[in-house]
Hints:
Layout: H1 8-17, H2 41-44, E1 52-54, E2 61-70, E3 75-81, E4 87-94, H3 101-114, E5 125-130, E6 134-139, H4 147-154, H5 159-178, E7 181-182, E8 191-193, E9 199-201, E10 208-209, H6 229-232, H7 239-255, H8 265-274, H9 285-294, H10 305-309, H11 312-315, H12 341-352, H13 363-373, H14 382-386, H15 416-425, E11 428-431, H16 444-461, E12 481-487, E13 492-497, E14 502-506, E15 511-515, E16 520-524, E17 530-534, H17 543-559, E18 579-584, E19 588-593, E20 598-602, E21 607-614, E22 617-623, E23 629-633, H18 634-640, H19 644-662
Antiparallel strand pairs: 1-2, 2-3, 3-4, 4-6, 5-6, 7-10, 8-9, 11-18, 12-13, 13-14, 14-15, 15-16, 16-17, 18-19, 19-20, 20-21, 21-22, 22-23
Helix pairs in contact: 5-7, 12-17, 15-19, 16-18, 16-19
Pfam family, one: Pkinase
EC number: 2.7.11.21
Region (Disordered): 393-432
Amino acid sequence: MNTACFTTSQRTSCLTMNPDLFKPCPEHGQVILPTKPNKTKSEQIKPDLAQVVTDSKTGKSYSKGKLLGKGGFARCYEMTDLSSNKMYAVKVIPQSRVSKPHQRDKITNEIELHKTLHHKHVVKFSHHFEDQDNIYIFLELCSRKSLAHIWKARHTLTDPEVRYYLRQIISGLKYLHNRGILHRDLKLGNFFVNENMELRLGDFGLAAKLETVEQRKKTICGTPNYLAPEVLNRQGHGTESDVWSLGCVMYTLMCGNPPFETLDLKETYKCIKEVKYNLPSTLSPAAQKLISGILQKDPSDRLTLDQILNHQFFTKAFTPDKLPPSSCVTVPELNPPSPAKRFFTKMAKSLFGKRKSKVEKNHCEERESISKLVSGIVKCSISRQMSYKTVCTDEAPPPTVGQQVSSGLLDTPAEEESRKSAASRSFKGTVASSTEPCEDGLTPASIAESAMKVLNSCLSAMPAATRNPPCLSRPKSFIWVTKWVDYSNKYGFGYQLSNQNIGVLFNEGTHLSLCDQRKTVHYCLTNNKHFTFQASALPEQLCSQKQIVELMANYMEQNLMEGGDLHCEDQPPSQPPLLLQWVKTDHALVMLFNNGTLQVNFYTDHTKIILCKSSDSYLLTYISRERVSYTYLLSMLSEMGCSAELRHRMRYVVQLLQHHGDS
């Protein structure tokens, strides 16, 4: 696929210079450049719609409310039935616009088709009537307006929101296609949202019955930015053409502009015919693959609606059951379940038998079930277990794959105080021996204190700069966390290191690692006593914990992508780094290891900071949004300065560590 059709600056300009490209075509089967039509003298002096209109057949009167929208043929008003106070969205079509037989037939066909449709995700048709001035089509009122209004306010939506809306669009579209109906004008402005944030597919002005390939009409109709190549090539509309438009809708919601938008309509059509568009690297791999699978030049190569729903973009990521109304204007705070919840629940049942449902357990019972799970490994009382800090079960986990990047993270000094407050509210985690020293004398507190001091010192001495200094090669022993999964509501926190070792810090403070391609097991008690076993000769008491570690390892392998391009060279077998503590805040995940390494993952944009000691120097590694890694001597950053992007993240890390020390 050629993706070099236009530049970012061109796309940005289009948003303000050419908004009319989103408007429907003025005539059925015709596409023209967006211009304001010349009004006749009679049209210029024509009075506005009366405040009250009456159906002469039923005698019912309706009061006109606010204007909801307008298109090439009609205007849409909010109207209220004066006898029942029921409100409608009413499409008002002037009789002057249907004076010709083919124009009248078009409206008649729209009415006859729409009145037969009954589906949860299709705008409900109520009734219609006409008088000497207008035709009135009464439809379900969707008070949240349309996706076009939401898109205009938000510019981009998050992956979960896109999944939420696309599922409903596909549900309505499958209903139409199963009835042999093509919509032919799928776009943001034709997806309406009701009071309960439910989507309705509407505007059937260009809808048509599905014909055989030979009988399909060859006219070009629809909205320019969403037209399929075969439509532009006058090969006719098919269900695949609607799917193409759906792909354009998905792209627009995720990227902020239609995929083929340019400054010139002819150039837009050229890009569509040649399938030239830019696929941003900021999109999740699953989203990129899905969009690519939909926007295929050959209709037969495009994904079907069922294939879209079965794509990993939907099947391996969170879709909210409902969105808050606030999401119409701002990014919502969604609380997805643990991404591994169903996976582990199913596997845990097969391994350990059925458990009581969570609603039947209180907190002590939940802790007791964990204690029984590792019975014989660490014999400690419930009161000892309850002394450990555990993550709140309603804490939303960080996004893994497919979460939309939030722009502007930590970008302004004015936000620092609010971030500090947010960190204070969200300081949670599982602490293993936070005050007991490891065998080398390190504790989470001492590691955090050392990191805070060196970072603070670096930031204080750092001169102003616009770029980072030259990066260094990393030491061979450099190890970091490439994947992680939070299942602390049942077992603990799992992670994969860059040397492929897998570790789990269990809720009661024990730690188990699988190393050397899972042939060796390292086990650490809460008193920091270490044991090493061959996996084939593991004591029976540890088998349950090993199975949990393997479950988490399999989940991460199958569902998560690595967080950067840092790869560790093979090292001789040795005792692996041990996770001592992890903490989650609103913006980041913090991990402290017994070798003194500090890693902070910013899970809104997938950037990471890793601070480790090499000989007598500190090294700071930064992994960018593009998952490219850069390693610097901390002393070099102190002398030469760094980019604002890196400096802001370093400051945030210091704030987290300062709070850690105060807690």
